[in-house]
Design goal:
Length: 289
């Protein structure tokens, strides 16, 4: 893939063109779960530069990949963070985004280190395909699930970017994988490990700081947020988000994207896709994502 063909960073859509005045300012009462998810996503996207430094360093012997990461991928991910932040601040002015994000960064930066990147370039690129599968399908689900026109617009822009990121990482992966030396089993193991990591780390970390930000200095919940019934803990918030998105999640697209790096022959691919779909119906996958 020719990086020069990529859309100049962030030139394809602009935050200024999104109508944030259309944001539902009652979403913290009417659909707080969706608001938590938008806020958590705004934190993770806004911290992309921490991860980019590690990735660029990791791929510093590959000019094409490190160049794309530094000059395109990073700026687009940071734009996602700014757009989501602008949405959260428009829809939820009671929430002190800046203070909660600062606290989040202290914990999140500990999760991002060169050591957690894949053992080889091939396997790290397979991992990145999992991450971009997760983000592209998540924003697609947000777009389809929300009734807030401003959030729908933001999520639609972002999901298109994330699909494109997936395609870049997938093509980089294929270039490295063609050199040989990486078994299908090793790729399968790293894909599964990355899916499991998604559950444990970033989102729960972000949600715990959103929860902290929902409590004012007297220990009371910020007005409206979480309702009168108190705020669940971060793990419970995550479960509520999963339940909220469940019927909107594009499972077939996720299965297809996750399985692509394995380059399975058609019968095995169909079988694996069937297993993923069956597992999702029994909540196995949803306990992982
Ligand atoms: Fe993103
Ligand atoms: Fe991305």
């Amino acid at each position: 893939m020719n990086v020069n063909n990529s859309v100049a960073a962030s030139a394809h859509w602009r935050i200024e063109d999104i109508d944030f005045s259309a944001a539902n300012t009652r979403i913290s009462v009417e659909d707080p779960v969706m608001l938590w998810l938008a806020a958590a996503s705004s934190f993770i996207e806004s911290a992309s530069d921490i991860y980019t430094v590690n990735l660029v360093e990791y791929f510093d012997d590959d000019e094409e990949i490190s160049g794309w990461l530094a000059s395109h991928w990073e700026s687009e991910e940071l734009q996602h963070g700014r757009a989501l932040r602008a949405y959260v601040e428009a829809a939820w002015p009671e929430f002190d985004w800046e203070a909660a994000f600062k606290a989040f960064l202290v914990d999140y930066s500990k999760l991002c280190s060169v050591e957690v990147l894949g053992p080889t370039h091939t396997l790290e690129l397979a991992s990145r395909c999992v991450i971009e599968t997760g983000t592209s399908t998540l924003y697609r689900a947000i777009r389809d699930a929300t009734q807030d026109p401003a959030l729908r617009q933001v999520a639609d822009h972002i999901q298109r970017d994330e699909v494109r990121h997936y395609k870049y990482f997938y093509n980089f992966f294929r270039r490295y994988n063609a050199k040989g030396g990486t078994s299908r089993w090793a790729i399968a193991k790293i894909l599964l490990a990355r899916v499991q990591e998604i559950r444990d780390s970033d989102t729960i970390c972000a949600l715990s700081h959103i929860r902290d930000g929902c409590i004012d200095s007297t220990g009371d919940a910020v007005p409206h947020v979480g309702g009168q019934h108190g705020l669940p803990d971060a793990v419970e918030m995550h479960k509520l988000i999963t339940a909220r998105l469940r019927h909107h999640y594009p499972l077939n697209a996720a299965a297809k994207m996750l399985l692509a790096p394995l380059a399975l022959p058609a019968p095995a691919r169909n079988l694996a896709s069937g297993v993923i779909n069956a597992a999702a119906r029994t909540s196995l996958v949803w306990s992982l994502l």
